[in-house]
Amino acid sequence: MRKLHLPQAEALRRPPVRRYLELVRWLHRPRRALTNSGRIEGLQAGKVSLFDELFLEENKQDHDLVEIPRLPLSDIDHLGSFPFHPKNRKKLANKLTETAAHGSVKQWNPAVLVLSRASKSLVDADFRRVAPKGRHIGEWTGPGDILKVIPGRDPVTFQQKNHYLLLFPNPSYARTYQNYVTKLHKLAQTHTPTSLQSPLPPPSGAVLEGEDAQTLFQDYALCPPSQRISLVSIFAPFGRTVRPLIENRGYSQLTSPTDRAGRAVLFWVDGCAPTTRAVRSALDQDGRDRRLPWATKGGSRSIEKSDLSTFPPDNLDDSEQPDDEVKRRSSARWIVTFVDENEARRFVRAWHRRPFPLSSDSVQSEDAPLANTELLW
């Protein structure tokens, strides 16, 4: 038996009716595509193929010409015409960038959510992890994605407080995130056992709100289920406390002139106010003792004494007492900038609650004062 080539073998496996239609189409293939009116005229003139005459409906889609409407391009009509030349590429790119920036400024309508009575140990990932997921692809975040997480800080000491500001590009995203987190907190309260009479937690593999129950509760850490969550929305016009944070996308001490959030450390000494020179000398001596200098960035400005005299008062949290202001003003604060976040975290682990070496420039005391560190993000 003669062996068939692969195309011939595939043709034999097709249904008989389809093979017949393909054979008729090939034997009586038309010279040009016809419209409905052209097909009727062709039938009258006797110039239509046998396939078109027998299978009018079958071949209708191949012959009809459908006009596709054109989309308007009014958004870029004002850019003008640029001849295709390598020298004009940069000019066109700059104009497109300016147009996009202008459009984003017109659509900029920020909104803020304030999470109060929260733990000071929360990080940026804790807030983004519970953002509403995409409807079809879980890794994608849809409406409700956070633009910036800003931890609230004391206006005098710059230490972190127990509230966070969540910045969103528009009120719709803020409401979506607020509703989703509120619903998630209610689910955590319902399914978290608090006594012997509490219902059993969801078993492994249980689905709540279209997601795995165990993963849903493990990712949620914004507020303990035993407490009442406080997530308040703030919309424009903003007060003098929130407005600078939105304009600078954070505190100006960290974002100006360059963004140092995540790689800067707040440094202070309990009951002692050493000079900036004494702090720098202590860090340099520590680097020589460990045979590895601290990788700071900024040269002489890597250790700066923070000036919080013009810092606006924080009215978002009333947990601080007025009498505490005198105690909080008793010690100075420094901001130490490092090359990256890893080096900053190593410095926090090494120096937090560590005795500060006294020198001739610092105030002497019987017991060595303790140094404190806090990562600024």
What would you say this structure looks like, in words?
- The chain has about 375 residues and is an alpha+beta fold.
- It contains 14 helices and 11 strands.
Number of distinct helices: 14
* Helix and strand composition category: alpha+beta
Enumerate the spans where pLDDT stays under 50 for 5 or more consecutive residues. Answer: 73-84, 100-106, 360-364
Helix proportion? 25-40%
Mean pLDDT comes to 75
Q: Tell me the radius of gyration.
A: 35 Å
Shape: elongated
Task: Characterize the main sheet.
Answer: 5 strands, antiparallel
In what range is the share of β-strand residues?
Answer: 5-15%
Question: Short summary of the structure?
Answer:
This protein has helices at 6-12, 16-27, 36-45, 50-54, 60-63, 86-106, 124-128, 171-191, 213-219, 243-248, 252-255, 276-289, 324-328, 341-351; strands at residues 111-116, 148-153, 160-168, 207-208, 211-212, 230-234, 264-269, 303-305, 334-337, 354-355, 370-376. The protein has 377 residues and is an alpha+beta fold. It is elongated.
Any key phrases for this structure?
single chain; 377 residues; alpha+beta; five-stranded antiparallel sheet; 35% helix
Reconstruct the topology from this structure.
Layout: H1 6-12, H2 16-27, H3 36-45, H4 50-54, H5 60-63, H6 86-106, E1 111-116, H7 124-128, E2 148-153, E3 160-168, H8 171-191, E4 207-208, E5 211-212, H9 213-219, E6 230-234, H10 243-248, H11 252-255, E7 264-269, H12 276-289, E8 303-305, H13 324-328, E9 334-337, H14 341-351, E10 354-355, E11 370-376
Antiparallel strand pairs: 1-3, 1-6, 2-3, 4-5, 7-9, 7-11, 8-9, 10-11
